[in-house]
Design a protein that fits this description.
- The complex is a heterodimer.
- Chain A is mostly helical.
- Chain A contains six helices and three strands; from the N terminus they run αααβββααα.
- In chain A, α1 crosses α4, α2 packs across α4 and α4 crosses α6.
- In chain B, β11, α10 and β12 form a beta-alpha-beta unit.
- The chains are: A mainly alpha, B alpha/beta.
- Chains A and B meet through α2, α4 and α6 of A and α3 of B.
Chain lengths: 140, 338
């Protein structure tokens, strides 16, 4: 099964970038990373923690009446790399259905050659984010 | 300003100033005044604030205070050509988001590691890095970073490994600089290349696995700076961090558990006082005159402990074992305790 279109586009885009462009892109994503909406701030216990990440990362998913899923993240601004990487999944999977989200394989990131820009530990954390997004999507 | 008034040749100071490290032999207390005061014989009126005295006392109480500077010192030295400020973070994108004016970046992963082997960059490559950052052999290099200067200490340790003498850490790192609302800029400075000559690697500060075996045999201590659950073997990686591939859990025999973060104040990322640090390590039988090896998972957290033991407490024989648990926990035939 192919990846959701938006995610595939982002992966192709990043795959074509030089190391410097990858870093610049992650910085741009990190700077524009959306804050957690107020309504979730008092409901942290409902959010899914991502223990694989190097920083406290929480996420939650909501399903609309058309079964499309939206994710919300809480990632501290002191962790721009995590914000930048999470953006790829946040935008790439925005508005997907549960089936589309669950179909994303754990090695989806390989083509992006992220290891040119970030350490393997970061990539492990990034894969952790996907698995917790899937869990949150199931609960949504 | 400190409240001070003069009686004859004496300045009467609030008692706090007696902690300033400038107590003279003339100090004595005059009960007739009914005040908790000290007399200090001085020729000139004091023009220092109580706050500054406290701060100086704080840094001066460490064994090698020249290895630590405060944020104000850095702010006063931004344009000093003899000083290079280096940011070294756990999250390498932080520098690009904003850094101290004039500061350059080294990244523990992309700058300081060997591209192929599990090792640090070579001496030649280190010379190239230093040259590109405009560092000469005489430059004073001041390190700061995120996460309580954990990776700043790692970079400092590596600079010392290749023989760079004049190194300092900015106490409190990024967090304190930010808390004090000091500016961060995005401009990346460029400095003229230098000719830099590194020394041969200083193995007296780096432990290899054979050193660890000797340490165990001679019943000398190691300091395990990982979390208590990593020490006990319940986890093979940091809580909240990805698994990095140690096949066994536990700790090295003769190692005591002193998590690295106990050496810093969580509120502003500064180091704890000399007295607190002494109590922390000596309380666990890590003595200044013995040989000590610090380790963690890949040698980054333990480089902060190495810095604390070596320079804040003045231990002579302390090494950082960068192979750490990701080597020991995979090493065939190596003894492990749980």
């Amino acid at each position: 099964m192919s990846l959701p279109n938006k995610l595939q586009e982002m992966i192709d885009d990043i795959a074509s970038m030089s190391r410097e462009e990858k870093i610049e892109t992650l910085i741009a994503y990190a700077e524009s990373f959306p804050d957690l909406p107020e309504r979730f701030k008092t409901e942290k216990e409902k959010m899914e923690p991502v223990p694989e990440c190097m920083t406290p990362v929480f996420l939650i998913a909501e399903k609309d009446s058309n079964d499309k899923i939206t994710f919300y993240f809480d990632i501290p601004k002191e962790s721009p790399t995590v914000r930048g990487l999470a953006s790829i999944l946040l935008y790439g999977l925005h508005g997907c259905t549960l089936e589309e989200i669950l179909s994303v394989p754990a090695d989806f990131y390989l083509a992006m050659k992220l290891h040119e820009a970030v350490s393997q530990q970061r990539i492990n954390g990034f894969v952790g984010v996907l698995s917790h997004m899937k869990q949150a999507a199931v609960k949504a | 300003m400190l409240t001070a008034f003069y009686i004859n040749n004496y300045v009467i100071l609030s008692h706090a100033l007696a902690l300033s490290g400038e107590e003279s032999q003339d100090n004595r207390r005059d009960p007739s005044l009914g005040l908790d005061t000290d007399f200090v014989l001085l020729d000139q009126p004091l023009r220092v604030t109580q706050e500054k005295h406290k701060k100086e006392k704080y840094i001066m109480s460490y064994a090698r205070p020249e290895y630590l500077v405060d944020t104000e010192w850095v702010a006063q030295n931004l344009k000093n050509p003899d000083i290079r400020i280096i940011e070294s973070d756990e999250d390498p994108l932080l520098y690009a988001m904003g850094h101290i004016e004039g500061a350059v970046q080294v990244d523990w992963f992309s700058t300081l590691q060997h591209p192929l082997r599990r090792d640090f960059l070579t001496k030649e490559k280190f010379e190239e890095v230093a040259s590109n950052l405009g560092i000469t052999n005489d430059t004073t290099v001041v390190f700061y970073g995120d996460k309580s200067n954990w990776f700043a200490a790692y970079a400092l340790w590596l600079f010392q490994y290749y023989g760079h003498q004049n190194v300092k850490i900015m106490n409190g790192g990024r967090l304190k600089w930010e808390q004090e609302k000091r500016p961060f800029v995005k401009d990346v400075p460029a400095y003229p290349k230098t000719t830099y000559q590194a020394k041969e690697a200083d193995k007296s500060i780096r432990a290899f696995r054979d050193d660890v075996f000797k340490q165990i045999e001679s019943k000398q201590p190691l300091v395990d700076v990982r979390s208590p659950k990593e020490y006990s073997g319940e986890l093979t990686h940091m809580p909240n961090y990805p698994q990095e591939g140690a096949t066994r859990g536990g700790h090295i025999p003769t190692a005591v558990s002193i998590p690295w973060a106990q050496a810093v104040n969580e509120a502003d990322a500064t180091f704890k006082s000399a007295d607190e640090l002494r109590a922390l390590y000596e309380g666990k039988n890590i003595k200044p005159d013995g040989e000590v090896i610090a380790y963690c998972r890949i040698g980054e957290r333990s480089s902060l402990t190495w810095f604390v033991l070596k320079y804040l407490l003045g231990y002579e024989k302390v090494k950082n074992y960068d192979g750490s648990w990701t080597e020991w926990g995979n090493l065939v035939d190596a003894p492990i305790e749980k």
